[in-house]
Amino acid sequence: MNRRIAALLALIALAIALQPGSGRYCSAATSAQAGDTISHVIHISVDGLRPDAVEILGPEYLPNFYRMRIEGSFADNARTDYDYTVTLPNHACILTGRPVLGPDGHGVYFNNDSGGTFEDSVGTYVAGVFDVVHDNGFSTAFYASKSKFDFFERSWDAVNGAPDLTGEDNGRDKIDIYVNTTDTSDLIDSFIVNMSMHKDVYSFVHLYDPDDTGHAYGWNSPGYFAAVIHVDSLLGRIFDLVDNDHGLSGRTALIVTADHGGIDYGHSNATIPENYTIPFYTLGPGIPAQGELYDLNWDSRLDPDTGRPDYSVVPQPIRNGGSSNLALHLLQLSAIPGSVINSSQDLIVWPANGLPSVAITEPADGAEFHPGDTVRIVASAEAGVGSIVRVEFFIDWIRLGMDTESPYEAEWHNLPLGTYRLTAVAVRDDEIASSTSIDIQVTSLTDAEDRICHRLDPACVYPNPFTGSTSISFFLGREEVVELSVYDVLGRKIETVYSGRRGPGGHTLDYHAKALTPGIYFYLLRRGNEVSGGKLLLLK
User: Fold this and answer.
1) CA-wise closest residue to 325 among 14, 98, 149
2) In the chain, where are the structural domains located?
3) Half-sphere exposure of 277 (CA within 13 A, CB side)
């Protein structure tokens, strides 16, 4: 049994992370060539995220992580700090571009906030990414989900921040907006409100959920997977903001990485691969689709396989500590003073020959279809340099097929109800690719919804996302005992919606969300000896 099947069976068995299909949060994005202006960077750290968890769960469970993998460039084998694989030290690496130890180290070897600052720890002021953005006259924001992150706010506040010696004096306080709450849904609420109003140039967002559940239930446990899925939904909300805000769309880059991984119930041993191996994702104008960051940086970064290279090895692996200098490079700002990780800003995400161009010519963006229809997807592509070797097609970041000859085509048969994102990725002969996407809507006809749901295995939920109530439809080959239950993201049963016997044929059970708060929930459907489940997304 492969890892992914085992993981999904565990999710169903424990009714914690039963997520079918993909969330549909994002509208179409526009490809851009290198050199296009990026005016905003959203830098996200997913605390305790193991890259293999993303691979195990796949695009059906993590559509927004897979959007980054398909529409952007990534590495599944990046590295933490060499000596430490715990939260505060590695976030200090991320924000300062320094290792923990050594003459260039930031000195934050501890993992709790005792009320001090960087300067208290190492004896001198330590600049961070916020210094560079702020001192150049741009706005900054920090959204944290652990109280210990107050250490960073204090280190760079109006009292302890360094004087601004770059151009106009913007004061010593390097972080314009600071929000700290353990409720990551509320945290993203704050981010969306502030970003919509202020359009901060650099925002750092910390999401602690996988680390918290890893300690409680174990890394790569069903509870851990549920937390990763929850984070994916938060990424979806960020994408929704960026896609639909004219001041952000086409001008914003995202960087997603982690402070450490984890194994069993911890991550403190820096010699264990599961602890020091982390993901590193980039998405934005000019960044190739499906790009492998190690391939893009073949001459300056070396994939360490399972190894743990120290800071003396040349070339270095991609490290989380280089992500802030990448953010600054995308904003066309200089590196963090005193930094040594990616301090030359040579981590390449913009290929020298630019990107190919691609467009979906059929169907039109926003086109409507009916359940059971077939949609013909047609794309055109231009290489710019070299030639196009193939165009790949995706439905909600699940691969549909590819074509090697123009006009590039694919077909999707027996459309189920819902809203879907169709993506075309044009790949050039140098393996540099770009993507484009549209949305389509599959709406119901009289009795068509039942017919399509009967063909689906194991069940059909419509509408989903929903407000107030939704319906779960399924098919029985013979009379069976049926039970439908709803759970929260931690696997706690909220209620049993139905329990009883049903005869052969098609059935629909209605679920009324009553007083539930908006968010992600999961259903568990038992039909005799068969158990299946899925995600329910309740909107406001």
Assistant:
1) 98
2) 32-286+308-330, 357-442, 448-538
3) 17
Cα atoms in the 13 Å half-sphere on the side-chain side of 117: 18
The neighbour count for residue 520, using CB atoms within 10 Å, is 21
Q: Which letter, b or e, does each residue of 54-64 get, where b requires 16 or more Cβ atoms within 10 Å of its Cβ?
A: bbbbbbbbbbb
Half-sphere exposure of 443 (CA within 13 A, CB side): 5
Q: How high is the pLDDT of residue 408? A: 98
Half-sphere exposure of 410 (CA within 13 A, CB side): 20
Q: Which two tokens stand for residue 510?
A: 């209605």
Element (H, E) at 130: helix 129-135
Per 3-state DSSP, the chain is made up of helix, strand and coil in percentages (nearest 5) of 25, 30, 45
Task: Tell whether the model's pLDDT for residue 427 goes beyond 80.
Answer: yes
Across residues 380-387, what is the average pLDDT?
97
What are the pLDDT digits (tens) for 218-260? 999 888 888 998 999 999 999 999 999 999 999 999 999 999 9
Confidence at 458, pLDDT banded by 50, 70, 90? low
Tokens 């934005």 correspond to: 284
Q: State how beta strands 140-144 and 202-207 pair.
A: parallel
Assess whether pLDDT exceeds 50 at residue 448.
no
Q: Residue 4 pLDDT > 50, yes or no?
A: no
Contact of 95 with 202, CB cutoff 8 Å: no
Q: How many CB atoms lie within 10 A of CB 478?
A: 10
| Structure-block tokens of residue 332 | 């066309």
Domains 32-286+308-330 and 357-442 share a fold: no
Tokens of 275: 């602890």
Please list the residues that pair with 206 across neighbouring strands. Answer: 45
The fold adopted by the segment(s) 448-538 is Immunoglobulin-like (2.60.40)
* Overall CATH class of domain 32-286+308-330: alpha beta
pLDDT on residue 258: 98
Whether 454 shows a pLDDT value over 80: the answer reads no
- Amino acid at residue number 112: N
Helix (H) or strand (E) run with residue 125 in it: none
Class of domain 357-442: mainly beta
Give the mean pLDDT of the chain. Answer: 89
